[in-house]
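Exercise 4. Each item below gives a protein and its sequence. For each, produce the structure-token representation.

Item: Ubiquinol-cytochrome C chaperone, putative (Byssochlamys spectabilis).
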Amino acid sequence: MSTAGAGTVRPRGSDPTGTPVPCPDAQPPNTFTIKGFKITTQKLPILKAGPIEEMTEKLGIAPPEMIFGDNFVAIDHEPSGWGINFNAFDALDRVDKTGQKMLKVAYSHEWQKSRETTHEGIKEVVKPFDWSYSTDYQGTLRPSAPRFEKSEDPIPIELLKRPDPILFFDDVVLYEDELADNGIAMFSCKIRVMPARLLLLARFFMRLDNVIVRIRDTRVYVDFDAKTVTREHQFRECEYEKIRKSLDAQTPHAVSRAPYSSQSGLLTGRSAGGSDTRFSTLPFIRNPSRDQNKFQHSHLPRRSFHQSSQQHGIAKSLLPRPGTTVETYVAYGLTQKLFEVCSAQADYKIPQISQKGAEVPKTAQGEDLGVGEGWWYTDLGLLPTFSSWSQVTFLHMYLLTVRLRALPSPESLNTYSRHLIDHFSHNAEQRMDVLHGIYSRGIRNKYLKDLFIQWRGILAAYDEGLAKGDAVLGAAVWRNLWKASHTDANGQDIDWAKVARVVAYMRRVLADLAQVDEADLVLVLGRGSAGKPPIFGYSELDKILVEGKRSPAATKAN
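Answer:
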């Protein structure tokens, strides 16, 4: 067991007792106190270069791709002086540094054989260590805390199954690595606190594709009334092929499933049960009622985006029957064009990338600040950053998704939705690499996972807004585009008329999309028709609605 006593190297951000403390510039950690026990958790971003170099020197091994050195979970009982914490440094300090337990990837034998004749004189110069970062870490006890004693009393699972209210919960990742694209290794801690007890699960999970799957669990159970603490360890591992065959045997009409690859696309994997990922959304809303939609467009002249019969006939003939194999390929090409239009609405550049030695300016929140055009930046005052681009792109993807819900079959909707979000994933990763210098695939995948979670939240939030009215929709827009801030980029109070303009824009675009056949979307979405502006883009109608005025054309019509 790793402790922080005399003669040992304490983890970054810890006091002399070994208990982690927050960094001076960091936001305060989460704390919860109950019946004399204090629970503390902290979640901060990935370590920067300086702290990583310091940790590498102290550990004696290269750290994982994603190391959250300031994160920790701690349980303390001040009256007795007992305490235990879980942190990244001590977890990595338990990794084998001799190389005796080092695993080999599935193709290592062939790789070595191909180099036996051409690299005979080359010797290993890198210090060997267990590069899977497998650790038997079971927590760091306070130096003055009583030691654990062996016991035959297990953790009372039946008590944990009770539907007791959860007073506090957190999920903290300590480190993660994709094992050079050969799998994944992750150490994380989850803790939940109930009125009479708490349970902490510290799990190391490792999957080395085509070789082995390994799980090492440490559970800490605290009974508040009895003042007892139980710690349980479980080490399990199995050959990769045995698990694959077992899963195939349990799946009807089993097929050979390749291991998940982050390179093939973040959003195309399968869940544990093998079922495709589905989006839970509301039905397509073609014509919101007046009570639900404060910004009605019924009094404004509607634009017609219908193509000529010849154009429409050609486009319609290109669409295959729903559910066929051909539809997948057609949907891929169509959604790529649709995504390009969505992405172009708030596109940005970073000129300093092509200037040697130039420093990229930053926002107050530390984001790379680029240069962008269009009304999202000039009129609404959004900053040309990656986050602004992603949120505006998500908004337009959502508007398209609402229209695509009117496709002939659920299978068609799933196909188009999946390809649309895949195009976003690939484009976002390219921007991280080219524009923002995030060269680590593991870090990029971490951000992509966060973006996918945001996308699922956006679907639910905007759906709720369409159903419940403009106030709810405006709140969702404010949370996503303005990051729920009450001030703009210049430190001034938010101009809520700008939020209302986005709501009016969304309502207008949905009304226009409802008039367009899905076969014509690519033809009219980005370039308009018959001299009219495109559906996506700035329109004076939105501003007129917010200001309570009516267009001259509408006045003349009445």
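Check: The longest helix spans residues 441-468.
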